[in-house]
Design brief:
Blueprint: E1 17-21, E2 33-39, E3 48-49, H1 53-60, H2 64-71, E4 80-84, E5 97-102, H3 108-121, E6 127-130, H4 140-150, E7 168-172, H5 179-200, H6 208-221, E8 225-229, H7 231-237, H8 240-246, E9 254-260, E10 271-276, E11 278-282, H9 291-294, H10 302-313, E12 322-332, E13 344-346, E14 352-354, H11 362-376, E15 381-386, H12 390-396, E16 401-405, H13 408-421, E17 425-427, E18 445-446, H14 453-462, E19 470-474, E20 480-481, E21 491-492, H15 497-504
């Protein structure tokens, strides 16, 4: 019998496959669903159907505009009207359903919402043909990403999952020269799926060693270099923050490093370092969390998942700079050797922290990785990603992530990329007004002195950056989705991979930074 101490993750569903076809949607053979775009009418008139509607209406002998009228459809993004087709058509005898999907104002977010809505409406179907992306050259990426993430499912049941994503989605009436854009979109959607998957795996399987093994698999699949520090090497090289947080757990900590180089790097190719918080479960340590607050803490390594997933897709998006991903991974547990309030940790490089709250552990592991990066990797930019503070959730709710930066150009690039990607960020002040709160009578800093929590946490990390351009993404506000909401499905979100890939996949991701 299999060991209950080493659980085995059941086989998981895969995202839909995507393909292109120059044919109209009703002319794509072998599909059981056709999805057409619905555009809001102008000046209060009724909605308008997009490409393929007239021919399909004739084939079916059905007035699809009248169907919209009877259904009181508006064309709002993500609105779906379902039309059963029991007899199929002569061209597509397998056709059983027509979906009329609202695309709203045809912004990026509208196409993402339309893609996600289509994926939900077409779950358990074998193939879908849709002309939605044909109405705008910029629609392919948001539509494909939305359809990918709207399909996301994780299960650990004794039986197969109740539903599965549509097997294949054909982008109809789209020319072949869009193929590179489609490949890039699939990579971005796949990275976001991977980040979400890693964040969703329960902690009885997901410990630091398991996360390191996932990173190694990603490295092998995507031609990255991978280095793993075990607890002995961490101790020998002075990573006191990672070791301290992980010392109470039966699962020892790890530091994960992934290296990417563009196709033709040279000596002047700059290096970006991404650092992701990898707390595979957070009890709060001896400063124990309330029970209800602990239920989502398997996803406290979302920052690490985002970094691993981003590294996996850099080559696919054509990232022009070197990128090194660092994930300090530990389990913040309660045990005989747990970190105690009042303990002092010595971080990589020598700076010390008095631990007054063991539940402020994320900044302790991030500090080690940031200090290592600044000392050894000559970074042009450092960006860290972490589900760090409850305070950012109080400020922003569950739809927007927090951004801190010591460089205005970097902040602008990240905010712009995040907006396009559908993972919006709001910039907070990195003000030194609260710097005095970090003072400790016995160490260089207090890890949890009170005050405005998100700002103080960012100020704590800033001491490890020196003068390197740096951004800190506090994504605790968006770490979980409570319900289905467009491309989000209930559970851990993996928020951040899309934004980072939009930024790093741009022609000049460091334009103006450090100037």
């Amino acid at each position: 019998m299999p060991s209950t101490r080493t659980p085995t993750l059941p086989s998981q569903v895969s995202p839909p496959e995507f393909a292109l076809s120059a044919a109209a949607p009703h002319g794509v053979v072998g599909v059981d669903v056709v999805a057409l775009p619905v555009l809001p009418g102008e000046d209060g008139s009724g909605p308008v159907l997009g490409p393929g509607a007239t021919d399909l209406s004739d084939l079916l002998g059905l007035d699809l505009l009248r169907v919209l009228e009877v259904s009181r459809a508006t064309g709002e993004a993500g609105e779906v009207t379902t039309v059963p087709v029991p007899l199929g058509t002569a061209v597509s005898p397998d056709l059983t359903t027509v979906l009329l999907v609202g695309v709203g104002a045809q912004r990026h977010q509208d196409f993402r919402r339309a893609g996600a809505a289509l994926a939900r409406a077409a779950r358990d179907r074998s193939a879908v043909a849709t002309s939605i992306p044909s109405i705008d050259p910029d629609a392919v990426t948001p539509f494909v990403v939305g359809a990918t993430l709207g399909s996301f499912l994780f299960h650990w049941r004794s039986k197969p999952p109740e539903h599965v994503p549509p097997g294949r989605i054909v982008l109809a009436d789209v020319p072949d020269d869009v193929a590179p854009t489609l490949d890039r979109a699939v990579a971005i959607g796949g990275a976001a799926w991977l980040a979400r998957m890693l964040a969703t795996v329960p902690a009885n399987l997901k410990n630091p060693a398991w996360l390191a093994a996932q990173a190694q698999e990603v490295a092998e699949a995507h031609s990255l270099d991978c280095t793993i520090w075990d607890e002995q090497r961490l101790a020998a090289e002075g990573f006191g923050g990672v070791l301290g947080v992980g010392q109470g757990s039966a699962s020892p900590p790890r530091l994960i490093r992934l290296d990417y180089a563009p196709r033709r790097p040279h000596r002047r190719t700059p290096t970006v370092v991404l650092v992701g918080k990898g707390i595979t479960f957070d009890t709060g340590g001896l400063s124990l969390k309330p029970g209800q607050s602990m239920t989502t803490m398997k996803r406290d390594m979302t920052g690490g998942a985002v970094v691993i997933a981003t590294m996996a897709a850099l080559r696919a998006v054509g990232c022009p700079v070197r990128v090194i991903g660092l994930v300090p991974a530990a389990e913040n547990s309660v045990g005989a050797n747990s970190l105690r309030p009042g303990d002092v940790l010595r971080h990589y490089g020598g700076r010390t922290s008095e631990v007054t709250n063991t539940d402020a552990e994320g900044r302790l592991v991030l500090a080690d990785a940031i200090a290592y990066a600044v000392s050894n990797l000559d970074p042009a930019v450092v960006v860290d990603v972490a589900t760090l503070t409850g305070a950012v959730k109080v400020a922003l709710g569950q739809q927007v992530g927090g951004l801190f930066a010591n460089d205005d150009a970097l902040a602008g690039l990240l905010r712009g990329a995040a907006e396009v990607a559908g993972e919006p960020l709001w910039r907070f002040p990195l003000t030194d007004s609260y710097e005095g709160k970090l003072s400790s009578t016995v160490a260089d800093a207090d890890n949890a002195p009170g005050g405005p929590g998100a700002i103080v946490a960012a100020l704590f990390l800033q001491h490890f950056v020196d003068d390197v351009p740096w951004a800190h993404l506090d994504i605790a506000s968006v770490g979980d989705s409570p319900e289905d909401a467009f491309e989000w499905t209930p559970g851990p979100t993996g928020f951040g991979a899309r934004a980072l890939l939009e930024w790093l996949g741009s022609p000049e991701p460091l334009a103006g930074v450090g100037g």
